[in-house]
Amino acid sequence: MAEGDNRSTNLLAAETASLEEQLQGWGEVMLMADKVLRWERAWFPPAIMVTSLLLLPGLNQHGIILKYIGMAKREINKLLKQKEKKNE
């Protein structure tokens, strides 16, 4: 019985070590993303804009931009209708 427990403990330790190794690089990415979202540096906003502009052609190719434009139009129309009802 102790051998089975020892084997499962070793397996769990190996899986944990593997997962920890896989996630090691993401910690640095998350720290950088946090810094960007908090705009800790003056050049972050322009860097985000340039990066976004580079992604636009790929997003447009897959129809993602048109999808979000359509969603935005529907929301704007919904808000305008609510405003009209409120004014009546």
Descriptive keywords:
88 residues; mainly alpha; 2 domains; 3 helices; 89% helix; elongated
Can you offer a commentary on this structure?
With 88 residues, the chain is mostly helical. It has two domains: 1-39; 41-87. Helices cover 89% and strands 0% of the residues. It is elongated and about 80 Å long. The chain has three helices and no strands.
A few lines on this structure:
This is ADP ribosylation factor like GTPase 6 interacting protein 1. The chain is an all-alpha fold. The chain is built from three helices and no strands.
Give the domain tally.
2
Q: Give the SSE order as H and E letters.
A: HHH
Task: Sketch the major β-sheet.
Answer: none
Q: Give the tally of β-strands.
A: 0
Question: Residue-averaged pLDDT, rounded?
Answer: 81
Taking all Cα atoms into account, the compactness measure Rg is 25 Å
Share in helix: over 70%
The fraction of residues in strands falls at under 5%
Quaternary state of the chains:
single chain
Enumerate how many helices there are, as a single number. 3
Low-confidence stretches: none
Shape: elongated
